[in-house]
Amino acid sequence: MTIVEPSLDRAAELRDEPGVIDRLRADPSAKVVAVRDGRVRITGDGRDELLLVPASAIAEATWALLGRARDGAPLLLAALAPEQGSIDTAPDETWLGLRDLGGRLGADDSEVLVAALALAGWLRDAPFCPACGGGTELRQAGWSRRCLVCGREHFPRTDPAVIVAVESPDGERLLLGANANWAGRMYSCFAGFAEAGESLEQTAHREIHEESGVRLASLSYVSSQPWPFPRSLMLGFRAVVVDEDEARADGEEIIDVRWFTREEIGSALAGDGPVGLPGPASIARALITAWYEERALGAVTRRSATT
Q: Fewer CB under 10 Å: which end of the chain, C or N?
């Protein structure tokens, strides 16, 4: 398993500093990621980078500290109201979401993007205390809320979910499902949220059996991906089934399940069918690609060595 070290310095030691947001907003070196309705702006010069603006460019927003940029400058989040206009003269349609951006951003910008979207969503959606309904005040530079009525402290939620690439016993076919929401246009790995009292492994076994009918003979963790829709942490697994003939759709959430050969997956990854696959920003795409390349590229290498 590849260990990915964080590139974003979240500057957690600054969060409890009184007045830190006001101080950093006044810092001329500070850079701001503006988020509006789950979307951000990228630079318009073909570089595909997050557009970072000075704090003076933002009139009204809910503010938070994201951390420090690569050059050490303060990096702030400005969560805008959905009805607010653009932060420059560019048209509204140039605001892009995570699915729009796909894999276009570099690793550093992608990490900042996901953190900004996740925190902005919480700032927008959780203004009241879930225990008593009272109003809250932001604390820790936007990373917690304190209820003004009952005094409870609340933090951004992260909901764990598993997503699993399911393969046949011989490793030559991949089982994918079509969600009812996609109307059969796309097939993907099986996924679901962990329920109360479940381990991630138990969640994987339950979800796969519920959605596709198969039982798992083995299960191994691969990697994870924060997915701010609205606050998920997707934990990716690879699994091998006991009996591939058990595959069947649940008929509700999943309307079809299908075994795909490596050749069919390669064609779908190239955009040539037979079905659509998840976009390049998703861990589902990464799991499918890794399964495909694991042996497909090895076969090409072996053929080249014998010619």
A: C
pTM of the model: 0.86
The percent of residues above 90 in pLDDT, for the chain, comes to 76
Of 151-165, 178-192, 245-259, the poorest mean pLDDT is in: 178-192
Strands 136-139 and 153-154: unpaired
The tokens of 70 are what?
């690569």
Q: For the residues 143-157, what does the mean pLDDT come to?
A: 97
The kind and range of the H/E element at 74 are strand 74-80
Token code pair at residue 198: 């479940």
Q: Which of 35-44, 164-173, 284-293 has the lowest mean pLDDT?
A: 35-44
Residues near 86 by beta carbon (within 8 Å), at least 6 away in sequence: 41, 92, 94, 95
Cα dihedral: 144, 147, 150, 155 (round 10) = -30
Among candidate residues 216, 234, 236, the one with its CA nearest the CA of residue 165? 236
The pLDDT tens digits for 8-28 are 999 999 999 999 999 999 999
Tell me the longest C-alpha to C-alpha distance in the chain.
Answer: 76
DSSP state for residue 191 in the 8-state scheme: E
- Return d(Cα 118, Cα 113) in angstroms, integer: 9
d(CA 298, CA 257) in angstroms, rounded, equals 27
> Which residues lie below 8 Å from residue 293, measured CB to CB, with a gap of 6+?
none
Q: Give the angle subtended at the CA of 259 by the CAs of 254 and 263, to the nearest 5°.
A: 130
Q: What is the dihedral of CA 277, 47, 61, 90, to 10 degrees?
A: -100
